[in-house]
Sequence to fold (193 residues):
Amino acid sequence: NQDPLQPMENTEFVAQLAQFSSLEQLMGVNSNIGLLQVAQMSMTNSQVAGLIGKEVEATGGSIQVTGPGDQDVNFDLDGAAESVEIRITTSEGVEVKTINSGAKGAGLNSVTWDGKDRFGNPVKAGSYNVKVIARDAEGNEVKASTKVKGVVTGVSYQNGIPLLEIGDTKIQVGEVTAVRVPGATTTEDETSP
Fold:
């Protein structure tokens, strides 16, 4: 409101109008950004749902056992190792089996676990933790990272972040390093991210 006896200077009046106009435009931009976020989430959700039924490989420290039989334990080594020990435990930390696989080269490696505990009994279906301990010829530790591999059975969301479900195991989409049609064979170059 202006005082009729002391009217506002024209420049002050124009400056206030410009501020109101800028504020109105910023509110419109904010609203449009919110709509873009919703559209982006919808597209991401559609793409992630497209992974259901596909075999994925991702970084992680667990293996999903779906039934009796051999299970592949995949891991990456930063360098050549003279000895590699794979420790398989339950989610509670109870030791199931330790596999000594001998020497392995740098890069992606795989060891077959027979799906049995240390007493020779088949393990129950479920998720098991895997830890790889590798040492070089001098006894120094070689950095190792385990890989999760399996068919995506579902997608869940935690705090708006999509998680791929491989049985009981949940992995973030950003941890995926390879996607394949189940049963397809690939060369090492094709599995590289």
Q: What stands out?
A: Residues 156 and 163 are 5 Å apart (CA to CA).
